[in-house]
Queue: 4 jobs
Job 1
Amino acid sequence: MKISSDIIKVYKDVHIWVGIICGLMLFIAFYAGAITMFEKPLERWATPPSALAPPPPLEDAQTLLAAVLAEHPQAAKRYAIVVTPTPDQPARVIWAERGKGPRQFTEYGASFGADGSLQTEKLRKAKAAQLVDRMHQFVGLPLPDGVARYIMGAVALAYSVALLSGLIVLLPTLTKDMFALRIGKNIKRMWLDAHNALGLFSLPFHLVIALTSVGFALHTPFYASQAKLLYGGQINWGEHEAPPTGTTPLPAHVLLERTQAQLPGFEVYSFGFQQNREGQMEASVTGLDVRHGARGRTVMQTHLDPYSGTVDTHDLPGRMDGWGEAVNAFFALHFGSFGGNPVRWLYVLMGLAGAALFYTGNLLWIESRRKKQRGAESVQQKRSAWVLGCLTTGISLGSVAGISATIAAAKWLPARVEDLELWHQAIYYAVFFASIGWAFARGAARSAVELLWLAALVTVAIPLSSLAGAFGIAGAWSHTGSWPVDLTALLAVPVMLYVAHRSQLRLRQGHKDSVWAQSGQQPA
């Protein structure tokens, strides 16, 4: 079926303007999302070492818990017993106390000293990984979560429209342009081929990401509507959960034995406990079954009866009903939480390719509106093209440099400041907004080279911080098992330097009538 040129033009306009409006926000979401594929190694890399004594055996967890509750009775409201302590969860018993904000909690850990006395410590969990994840979830917006979430939902819906409209635009020339990548003097054609190839061959991936992002961002109104229309005003989330059946929770090692008996192949990480309104204890088990994809990025979680050890399995992959398994598979495709490290590295590449898709879309728009120089007469480009060029350079490279800078600072901040979250945010946004200002001050062409050098400099500071930690320099530290963070940074630096070199060549040798040329300064 032949599509008329008028329809193609309408869909092309939709594709262009949706891309222009949302593309730079999606660049941040995809770049940060690629980094979050190794969120747990990043948390371990950025979490300072604990001063607590080594955790006691799991069989002694109840004795430790009793000592904690004797000195800190408020811990009974919300605590966890860790089965396998790690650098980012170093204590056997961890509890949370409410902070100043409505959803702010401070975590504490406990152990027994060499003399048998109780040791407690405020756990300073890494905020760098949390900030990068927030950049991914809320497209880098420095707004309250409730506001940013709905904006992200709108961006994800627009992103879906851009994908479908772009496919319709490409359909008439699909067979001719599918494998074309014409590199030459026609810059517009080169960027169009690159953009089309990235979008077409990763289309299924992008559709899954777009639709699941809408679900994540707008799940509250979705569930509210569902409850009102189908469940008489309220969804009973706990209908599958067995009610508490005792007065004293089982010891952690007994819970572990019973959980393993019910869930063969499921590796238990921790048990969480929380008092309900009736004063009875509710519990959950957190872990991972590598044979199934997880609905979250790194763990699976479900309820269990702390008095009998009975696990509520309906929330666990492999034990859900058909609809539940379908939904779980859909979300696992978003997080890449299946297939181990090979799939994670594949998702890193797909995330970076997605960021490149939005970046090339902006370059294509700029090149398509470039006034061509004829003869010796100088040409002044449109202000809109110059502004979008500066925004593309400043926002894209500013987010890259800002994320690297705040991660690199994670090794140095804990020994020097108290509020880690505030400082990580301050570092990121300082670099981000300074980069945007630099792009407008220097122009898109010059600032692209300079900001790429900045990004490479702060990225190489990440493995250098680990090296400093290995030698115990200035309060830094180094953990085993967090090598993916340093390896990824080392792989990224040569790429940034190569792109900076190519941008420098384009600056000197490219079209003189382009905003990317050395003469491409701000229009009068």
Job 2
Amino acid sequence: MTGTDLRDFAELLYEETRARTDSPVGTLFNGAFVEAFREYLVEDGTLEDVEPCYCRKQVGRSVAEVYGYGLNDDGTVLDIVTAEHGWKAEVMRKAEVQRVLRRAEVFVERCSAGLHLQMEESDPAYSMARLIHEAWPNLVRVRIFLFTDARITVESMPPGEVAGLRCTYELWDIARLHRLASSGRRGEETVIDLEEFGGSLSCLRVPGDADYDCLLTVLPGRLLADLYERHGARLLQRNVRAYLQARGKVNKGISDTVRDTPGRFLAYNNGVSATATAVSTQSAADGVLLLTSLVDLQIVNGGQTTASLHHTWQKGIDLSEIRVPAKITVVRQEMLDELGPKISRYANSQNSIKEADFEANSPYHVELQELSRTIWAPAPEGSTRQTRWYYERVRGQYQVALSEQKTKAQKADFKKEHPLAQKFGKTDVAKHELTYRGRPHDVSLGAEKCFRLWTEDVVASHEGVPGVQHFREVVAKSILFEHVRKIVQRMRLGGYLGPTTAYSVALLVERCRDDIDLDRIWRTQGLPEWITELVPELATGIVRPLLVDAPGSGNVTEWCKKVQCWERVRGVDWTPGR
């Protein structure tokens, strides 16, 4: 990786940010920068999701500054994002990193003490500060993420403490993001050294064929809990069924067994099935085979067991007697995309979850990608240049394809043919489709949850593979959503851009479905004038007042996730004027 590569990637990241906003600086640009970074990390499984929300305040002699936040599903881990942009791959020293992280720490400390009480409710950051304060009693850990287009000289920061809670730091600079985006992998390589988790494990090797081997072992319950504590969703990202299991309610039977009869857990539990791309083993003096490390461990069946043990452990229940049977299939990296989904599907065949292939290499996503590489979009009025809409089946494909262009002229031609503003991925399709189907409350749950619901409810019922007309409708819905988003963004309403956009589009479609011509939107690559004129009235006069008026002066962000919010909005007495 050369300095030129990083500068080019930093420029691409800047262009991707600019494609999301008309503002080259300020709060809107800050949010767009976080969104651009966020997509890579949500796809990687490092983040569940994060809500962009910029806040900078002078607090006494200190500065508090953050760019976004997120709370995991069980309300025990707080993610805070801070950022530094405009470095264009220049070096950021340790002292600067510490300064930026400290500002985020100050913000968290003040929120835990009730910073929202000193803020106006109209402040876009009020809901964030209030949510953190209300979540504080249940939190066990804080993670602070630094997103930057600089090159950081420090590799890591040791864990610390913020307002009495353990705090860890995730440093994502332009070099680390570039490795993730251009490696051709689903995510960063994860190496698990079992010596860090209590020592090696006795195992039995069962030879497979040229493409895989298999190990049988028994995992301590505390090991699974610790692995989930450290790696979270990344342990489950290859199999979204397992991801769904882990995101559901904690299994009461598992919790009861751990608490009441821990010694029988091994007898009662079916265990976990996992894959890895490599393992290290050694023979003990007595000839027993010991498993010492794993690379890219993925739990493809047993996600609920893993998450339930982690949840139970967080509640202070002892896991020392818990043992979990495990089958670990070691698959060569180059065979993982072929064998991984099949192992996952067959391991989960007994489950009642709808039969749909959640993997990026499912027929639906593969065909959507192929269509995006062959279909030319009509040239906009007044232009003769045609372009393509680039579907990223796997995050980072655009960057890889761009890097394969050898000369500056070829790179420029590639970007003209595939404009960054016309790059979209799986979570984008999910967001646009569910909004069009009248589910803005589900869209407000966040990218990953929205994607899972769309996969279950839409992709699972899709007959065959998508064709040309389906692709054009997908793009038309994207144009509708993103153009409305840009209109709302330019109005500078102050926060809640995502929910305001989703609810505005959903209500527009419900009241004007017969008038919205997706074929025309595809042909013109834009919105008809009547929609662009209607959006300001719809967003400011109808939708936004209902969103910010959460019952009981509750949290607006959480209110937008509830079906009751959508029922209130869709029940409004509003007849669009044409």
Job 3
Amino acid sequence: MKLRDYQEESRKAIQVEWDKGNKKTLLVLPTGTGKTIVFSKVIEDRVKKGERVLVLAHRGELLDQAADKLEQATGLKCATEKAEQTSLGSFYRVVVGSVQTLMRDKRLRKFDADFFDTIIIDEAHHCISDSYQRVLNHFNANVLGVTATPDRGDMKNLGTYFESLAFEYTLPKAIKEGYLSPIKALTIPLKLDLSAVGQQAGDFKTSELGSALDPYLESIVDEMVRVASDRKIVVFLPLVKTSQKFTELLNQKGFKAAEVNGESKDRAEILKDFDSGKYNVLCNSMLLTEGWDCPSVDCVVVLRPTKIRSLYSQMIGRGTRLFPGKNELLLLDFLWHTERHELCHPAHLIASNDEVANAMTKQIEEAGVPLDLEMVEQTAEEDVVAQREEALAKQLQEMKRRKRKLVDPLQFEMSIQAEDLSSYVPSFGWEMGPPSEQQVKTLEKQGILPDQVDNAGKATKLLERLERRRSEGLTTPKQIRFLEQRGFQHVGKWPFESGKKLIDRIAANGWRIPAGVNPKEYRGE
């Protein structure tokens, strides 16, 4: 099986991290872009080196999927470590293992610490839990964590365990390159009050969410009739009884709706019937967030509001796959009323930061029609950058007046319009530490004031950007500082030679700006 370009790139990047000594590395691929295929190929590489590999997951469906995809992609068969099944004594080099089984001391002690050379964690955002940590800490192995789209909060948590991010393929890039469906979002003008719902483990209490939703269920169905009656829909709800009640209401209004939950004896049959078109709505109480695919789904309704980005991404991921005749995925959002604005909305799937997400959410709420997320993000990003530039203008003016030979990092970032640098937050342990002595020296040498760079991750990113700019022939920090002190704007976007020529002209003119040159309008030669 030939890998797509980004899949091949990620496969190589993982090996690079392990070669560098980063034993615990992370791969981020959105739902529907073939993460199981990628880690199957990584497993194949390891087996060819004579290694033993463990694939660790928390649900039986994920283990079965991994075993099936591994055999399809590579021809490799697996042994299983789950409940009564054991891999000990098997001649297979790959084991799919249940974390619930392996976490037990009696089971774990049967394996030497060096029994596995590599461990793959499917749905890696779960791996911070005690059960996973007990298994991972037992073995002395390279570890690859595979997850969909974690946000900064998730990354910070994952950064306490993983040492590096080997590769990330973003949802917007996957859509742009034609591997996932475009996404449109529509805010339904229904105000749903969650202010009385309590919190537990950093999210809303599911037991109280059901009661809070009950008064609105009929109105939600009416809105679905209005905007999505011709769609194939998956609905996520907080409780089984809420899911069952919602299914009844949908059927009363003319939908062909079915419901599945953990106790459903006919679950496989219902999923098959939904896939084939017998039903057009499938309701569930958070059962289908992992290990289930139905590419023909073209509408997702999240009635299980959450603050956790990875959970929200998993729900939406049920509808992002491509399918013949499917033009886009429609997400129905609501005017959720909460005490604090921490709720996940469609905007959070692709926004680079919370400022952009909030601006996008406002645009979508005010539109009243489905809007393409990528287009909304572009305008929101422009608005946020303009607002931020305006807010920072006074601060930058003050910096420019200071008699420093070195450039403040903030001035440099705003001049080169580097959103990724100005909004950078460290994730991994090493990134959070202070810059090294060598980093401080190099930043000073390159013209950046190191006092304002408070962590090693930011220092690394700045140095990488400076090196890239040097090789691309763009202006240096010192050129930026000199010219922006004299009123020239966004000098960071100019070629090095343009900056040099202008500084030479200013020097030849007694260090005054030459006649006919307007700093506010001048954009380099």
Job 4
Amino acid sequence: MHLQPSCFTSFTQAIDAYALPQRFTFPFYYEPHPLCVIAAAELQQHLESQQDWQHNFGLTGELTGAIGKMFGVLLVQNPQGEVGYLSAFSGKLAEQNHWPRFVPPVFDMLAKDNFFHAENLQINKLNQQLAALETHPDIPRLNEELVTKQTQAETQLAAHRQLMIAGRKSRKTQRSQLANQLTSVPSDEKQHENAAIEAKLSQESINEKNQLRDIKHYWDQQINAVSQALSQLTDKRDVLRQERKQLSAALQQKLFEQYRFLNILGTEKSLNGIFKGTVELTPPAGSGECAAPKLLHYAFKHGLKPLAIAEFWWGAPPKSEIRQHKQFYPACLRKCQPILGHMLEGLVVDDNPLLMNPAEGKTLSILYQDDAMAIVNKPAEFLSVPGKEIEDSVYARMRQAFPHATGPLIVHRLDMSTSGLMVIALTKDAHKQLQKQFIQRTVTKRYVALLDGIPTVMADKKATGQISLPLRGDLDDRPRQLVCHEFGKAAETHWELSQIDEMARTARVYLYPKTGRTHQLRVHCAHSEGLNTPIVGDDLYGTRANRLHLHADLLMLQHPVTRERMHFQVDPDF
């Protein structure tokens, strides 16, 4: 009798009506297969009903210490032809790696019999010694004493140097007076008297220099004594820090070598081997702990054929990120792309839709044109400027339309998914003048957006408001953006309620960005500290639809040549 792998889960409902996928999911941009949606729903039901472990996902209103988590399901077929699925969670769950139903980690750092515990214990002992040294009460006391003595030394030396300057000036005056008194050949008595005065002046100079030497010597002794006492503590600390750094680096490399990933060809690679040829060189923290690599590795190890994959978020979002409960998400790029690049070798995978030209077959309408500038209505899913893989863009189309112009020159951009008005400069002078207006923020830009829900603030009939949330790029998952109060760039948006549709549960709003950060309006709408409601069709921060319902509908600026104030407006197609 054939035994199923312990993590293989059979569907609880009949699935005969669903066609199996012909190609495996492209994990970085996908629409989940219907069977993955069913598998995810069954897993979510299990998460809601399980009693094996306690983990605060933030779903009961208690957000203190809440940790939402990414889960994944992998549709698989066993050698007997039965279709089922595997389940996984990213990282640890309730501080453990192993739970019934879920695939194990590729390498279990928490296992009692592996090297990690012993070597990590050694590092922890160093941490304890360092903590004792870094909190030693003598270090701040000696540092303060050192600064005090250095200040006192500088003060006394400076005062003595001023005294020496005054002394030199006085001696110079006295010598000048002696010289003026010599009207004839001096007598022996006078010569003797002058020589005595000169000797006295010279001795004063010598005495002052000796005093300076003695002051320096005194304070050098004082400062050296404190410095040596301080060094006895800090040198030991620095040695321990270096020892910890070396041990941590060695343990990290050893761990990276233990994370070894299979593909369907039976080829195995470690994290070190996978990241060796990448820009990162060293695997980022947490590499190999995401759901997708764990699922695929288990499938290949147990002879299961992967058919499709989907990952969803469960719980409250992290403070800086935008994650919607139960929403499907692609695999992250920084950590997972190199790993999955190896693991998907030998599988027939869906084409990468991000390499396809989204502007193909679309028309770029020119709404206004003269010798200095043009106003265009950019369609949704249309690049403003050429990308790494796709040349077709507003810039490329305008170059074709105006081959003899010194321009066209891009003055500002719209996100690829955003439609609406753009101004294009047709001369260098016009470009310079228009850019100046954008820099000085004298251009009026208005966007209209349809929100996928009615924000609480609008349900309370508030009609206008301000959002100020600093943004930076998500280094692990570009092009997504994060709210980051520590390192983010300032981003401000004014919003006005236009219309609420109670039946459709949507809200139409006008958005006025004061700054122009990447994805600013999308993040400010979706983030919990903003409107907490994503824009309809936002495939990064909400739920995908036929398009992103965000449109730059109003543009007011000064003509770069005539200085006439110009007003352009075009309605969205949603």
